[in-house]
Amino acid sequence: MTNLEPGAAPVRRRTGGRSARIRAAVLDTTIDALVEHGIDQVSIADIAAKAGVHETSIYRRWGTRETLIVDALFARTEHDLPIPDTGSLRGDLIAAARSLAELLSSPIGALIAGASALSVDDPDLAATRDRYWASRFAFADIVVRRAVERGELPPGVQPRPAMDMLAGALHMRAMLTHEPFEPDLPERLADVVLFGLHGPHVNKSNDDITARRP
Fold first, then answer.
1. Is 209 exposed, middle or buried (0-12, 13-18, 19+ CB in 10 A)?
2. Nearest to 57 by CA among 90, 12, 106
3. What is the pTM of this model?
4. Closest by Cα among 31, 44, 142 to 80
5. Domain layout of the chain by residue ranges
């Protein structure tokens, strides 16, 4: 096994290069350990040995076992959930829903469900989760912006409800109700989201909508 981190060399964080290779090795090793052993049986000592790095470097970079696990899982989801560009809003929504359904149906998806139950008292862990969801909301921004540019949606449409409806429904099935994903579910969810995006209150703030209620 190649030792990626000789003891005499100082750890310097920078984009690319040795630091990026170390991070990738640790995250990939963590994913392999999670799939093989499950969240409860994963230890930083084992990950360090298999990745060829020092335990102290892992603790220095991630702080806790839980933060490392969540970071590894969310890094993998970002890799497995590319931003679709099919040429239409409906096509993008279907592709996004299908990719997410496939991920949540995989062993990694089951681990994501387990990771969601880990304590959020650690600010580093909370920050890692925040970065993940920020990336998911950024996906919605891009998809909706493209649709506006193509004339499929009017300017001013809020992208957040699209992500709430699409991802929320799939995560609920995977983590709460444990219902299977039907083959046509991505299409049905995409159509529901499209209906919501074209709804009469789509450009209204929550305060405006509340004020209209009797």
1. exposed
2. 12
3. 0.70
4. 31
5. 17-62, 73-200
Q: Which two tokens stand for residue 150?
A: 């193509």
Which amino acid does the sequence have at 145?
R
73-200 classified as CATH 1.10.10.920: no
Tell me the two tokens of residue 49. 């040995």
The more confidently predicted of residues 25 and 159 is 25
For 200, which DSSP code?
Answer: T
- Separation between Cα atoms, residue 79 and residue 68, nearest integer Å: 17
Lowest-pLDDT range, 52-56, 79-83, 100-104, 111-115? 111-115
pLDDT digits (tens, 9 = 90+) for 163-172: 888 888 888 8
Provide CATH code, domain 17-62: 1.10.10.60
> Look-up: residue for tokens 């650690």?
122
Task: Say how far apart CA 83 and CA 142 lie, in whole Å.
Answer: 8
